[in-house]
Write a structure and sequence with these properties.
- α1 runs parallel beside α12 and α2 runs parallel beside α16.
- The protein is built from 16 helices and 13 strands.
- It is globular.
- By secondary structure, it is an alpha/beta fold.
- It has a five-stranded parallel sheet. A four-stranded parallel sheet has the order 4-3-5-6, sandwiched between helices.
Length: 371
């Protein structure tokens, strides 16, 4: 049966049939720990109540797939430090960055104190601001996995084409596969399989995950975001696990291709190169896990043009973001959850974005949890 519309992926009859199939093949002694690497999947699982429908011996581990959640607070402070010390600088960022807490406050706090901070919806918005304000220097605080990196790359190429000399990119783009490897390398880490991210995989395809399946012997199923997408992906994972297999499969075939988006990958390769290492919130430095502008684009690289000094911030030790990201704690087991740390007052980054695991728990389960 070919699925075409969103409603078909929320069809109660098809959902029930898939649930019945999952229940049929799971045995009482089974216990599967499945990591959904993408924050969008975490949101969907709770929004649609899938954790209540599935057998209790399927445990979800909420992974590092929310870019604002894994960003070390020092990176935000570094970008804001430039803007706050230079009256001719405009700091631009996506909306979910605006409340990320740093040492001296979030971008919204800086804005309230007079720093020129502006929310944008695409990197081209930042370039347009630069073109309309030639007497200002505009910094794009670029963030995201491979999902958003191509749009940043296109904007850099556009700035070069138009020779815009007051536009700069502060790159915080990260890569999904290196962080999954890092999590699997953690001591005493037990993950049986991965629900692969849908959005990033539109760009990179399925091939990069082969190392997870072949070297770590963990199955990966790239999933869409509707309830039937996720249930089908879970069923595919469980079938692999029951058969002793570890393959990379695509459930989200209506969007994701094996080789990814070739044009997007070529544009990224033209503009970006790997950083030797990048600090992840709660996970430490991970090699080749982030992207920076190539030397030939140094003219538009904020880290080069502004000589950014690295700011290291000791995180609140009671905010157990790292343990949650590694699946060692559930969000509501953190000492600060729902007490000091809430979506209105985020102490840890996992509470900032609607796709952060802690914000998802708070918004969907807070009223029924025992805190």
């Amino acid at each position: 049966m070919k699925m075409r519309f969103v409603d078909e992926f929320r069809n109660p009859e098809l959902i029930r049939k898939t649930l019945d199939e999952i229940e049929r093949i799971i045995e009482p002694d089974d216990h599967f720990r499945i990591m959904e690497a993408c924050g969008g999947h975490t949101y969907s699982i709770f929004h649609f109540g899938l954790q209540e429908l599935l057998p209790k011996n399927i445990e979800f581990i909420h992974g590092p797939g929310c870019p604002v959640c894994v960003l070390p607070p020092g990176r935000v402070d570094e970008g804001l430090e430039i803007a706050s010390k230079n009256s001719d600088v405009i700091f631009t960022a996506f909306g979910d960055v605006m409340r990320v807490p740093g040492k001296k406050g979030s971008p919204l706090n800086y804005k309230a104190m007079g720093t020129d901070v502006r929310m944008i919806y695409s990197p081209l918005d930042a370039l347009n601001i630069a073109m309309k304000n030639p007497d200002k220097k505009v910094i794009l605080f670029a963030i995201g996995f491979e999902t958003t990196a191509p749009s940043t790359a296109i904007t850099v190429l556009k700035a070069k084409e138009l020779d815009i000399d007051n536009f700069f990119v502060y790159s915080n783009h990260v890569k999904i596969v290196p962080v999954l490897k890092s999590i699997l390398d953690q001591p005493n880490m037990r993950i049986d399989g991965f629900i692969g991210p849908g959005h990033a995989s539109v760009v990179i395809g399925a091939h990069p995950y082969e190392i997870i399946a072949k070297e770590y012997k963990k199955p990966v199923v790239i999933s869409g975001f509707e309830p039937l997408d996720l249930l089908q992906s879970i069923l595919m994972l469980i079938k692999q696990l029951k058969n002793g297999e570890s393959k990379v499969e695509i459930q989200y075939k209506r969007v994701v291709m094996e080789g990814g988006n070739v044009s997007a990958l070529e544009i990224m390769d033209q503009v970006f190169e790997d950083r030797p290492a990048f600090e992840w919130r709660g996970l430490g430095a991970i090699q080749n896990s982030a992207l920076k502008l190539k030397p030939e684009f140094a003219k538009w690289d904020a880290e080069v043009q502004f000589n950014v000094e690295k700011i290291t911030i000791e995180e609140n030790k009671d905010a157990q973001c790292g343990e949650v990201l590694k699946g060692m704690l559930k969000p509501n087991q953190c000492k600060l959850f729902g007490k000091v740390c809430t979506p209105d007052n985020p102490v840890g980054a996992l509470m900032v974005s609607s796709e952060g695991a802690c914000a998802t728990y708070y918004n969907h389960l807070y009223s029924t949890m025992s805190l």
